[in-house]
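Slide 14.
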Amino acid sequence: TNRLRTNVRLYTTTYAVSEILPNAAPSFFANNPNSDLIIEEQHSEDIVFAVTGGTAEIGMIGEFVETGSLEVIPLLEDTLVAFTGNRFATEVPPRCAFSELLSFDFLGLGPGSRLQEQLEAHAREAGATMRYRARARNLDAICQLVSNNVGIAIVPRRVATRFSGSECRIIELTDDWTPYNTSAVVQSRANLPNTAASLLDCL
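Slide 15: predicted structure.
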């Protein structure tokens, strides 16, 4: 007889899909052969809304998001860096403040991204506005554009490192707001169904 299958609904940022799930998913599937994983990629604020409302059992979110009454479990530490092509902004030193980059064009995430909103707020604090050559849905797409030498992307170091090669370079940011950590959010870890709790243990 077929055993009853269970689903776990995970809402996550694209960043967490690429940086956390490749290691977590195989362990989850091995431990839960009768369970399926339903993954939705969303912006962090939408993820918080989905978990709060019960649409998703677990969310994985980035920095700069209000989590309300949700329980927050730190998962992964990272740092924001500037990432650009070797032939763009060649006068910029290997370490600088974000404000020193604001005279250049940027490659950014689309409207609704909490990360991009934070960067725009930091630009306003410095008395400037970010000027975009292109905006994309996810960090990987932005990094793929970097090698075209048309703009600077502000992205987590782990993503930039995956795309860095002979055509691109990482510029360290000296600002104090650069930590970019990923956390899991749940309504209550103690009250999670067994299968969802197993997934959280794997993250």
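Speaker note: The mean pLDDT is 92.
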